[in-house]
Amino acid sequence: MNSPIIIFGSARSGTSLLSRIVGSHPNIGVPFESHLYNRFYPWLKYYGDLEKEKNRNRLIQDLLDTDVMTLWDIKPEFNDIVSHLKVNTFHGVVDALMTAWLEKCGKKRWGEKTPWHMFYWREIMEGFPEAKFIFIVRDGRDASMSWLKARFGPKHIYPAALRWKRFHDEYEGFKQAVNPDNLYELKYEDLLDRPEQIAKEICAFIGEEYSDEMLAFHKSTTSYKTDKGNDKNLTRPLMKSNKEKWKKALTQDEKRIFEAVASEELARYGYQRVVDNASMSTMEKLYIKRLLHPVRRMVSMAKNFQGYRDAIVQLLIYLRLRLFALFNS
């Protein structure tokens, strides 16, 4: 069996674009984000021993009932997942789900992209030790600008910078632990400048023949249920100009704040810093974190109906699991 392909990267760093390019290969399928690890791994204790069929079935059904699965263009079926199950563990269920989906797509090898899975790299490596990992990094100032416009995520440059920094600090720990032969790192900006070269390098890394279909990803009729702007961009060819927009779009204060938080990470990946000795006072941090950012986020999220639905679905599953654990302990 071919090793799975796991795409890591901070939110708004080109992970959706990269997954569409890789998933357009005739042998590879990469579905919409699954959130399998960040949503379910912390709750595994409530499912009990997965060697027991009823516990496994409950987990599989809960996976299929999540809001995310409703966004998949092709949804795997319960019986198909059960039939593909080889190991009675959480990782085994994940593999069976992805394999069942892959079979419906008519492809041979699955990939997965969920930005928040970056924080579950230990668990993923444990379950899939031979996985091929692709990490994409984008200038954090451009990534943060994109994040601020999205229906989810931070609404001020300070918390956006903190999150970008957190992703890349976590990646450094992963980078030290993973077999270098199983990791390919690229810059979003290089993908825009040299798409064919990067696509060929990715194919060499994962052991597949290069296909021109990869760069024809925008011709796919499959909708990618992200925010409208991102979804629209995925229906277009690569936009070479979609970089360094922060230079004109960010205010001098925003540039200072971002670099005060993440100048070390910017330098680590070779991104230019433009503010000398960037810093923030303790009072400024408190004002943004305790007052300005929460108010902006509350106003922005007021229209995020999908976010409300996501939260309610997860809460109901959690409450049911807690009750089950309570009465079966």
Tell me the Rg in angstroms: 20 Å
- Beta-strand residue percentage: 5-15%
CATH superfamily membership: P-loop containing nucleotide triphosphate hydrolases
Task: Say how many strands there are.
Answer: 5
How many individual helices?
A: 15
Query: What is the chain-wise order of helices and strands?
Result: EHEHHHHEHEHHEHHHHHHH
Overall structural domain count: 1
Q: What's the mean pLDDT score?
A: 88
Proper CATH architecture = 3-Layer(aba) Sandwich
Side-by-side strand order of the widest sheet: 2-3-1-4-5
Class of secondary structure makeup: alpha/beta
What do we call the CATH topology?
Rossmann fold
Looking at the structure, what is the overall shape? globular
Supply the CATH class. Alpha Beta
Let me know the largest β-sheet. Answer: 5 strands, parallel
Helix content: 40-55%
Structure description:
- With 329 residues, the protein is α/β, with parallel strands linked by helices.
- The protein has one domain: 3-Layer(aba) Sandwich (Rossmann fold), CATH 3.40.50.300.
- Helices cover 53% and strands 7% of the residues.
- The chain has a 5-stranded parallel β-sheet with strand order 2-3-1-4-5.
- Helix 4 packs across helix 5 and helix 7 packs across helix 8.
- The radius of gyration is 20 Å and the shape is globular.
- The model has no long low-confidence stretch (mean pLDDT 88).
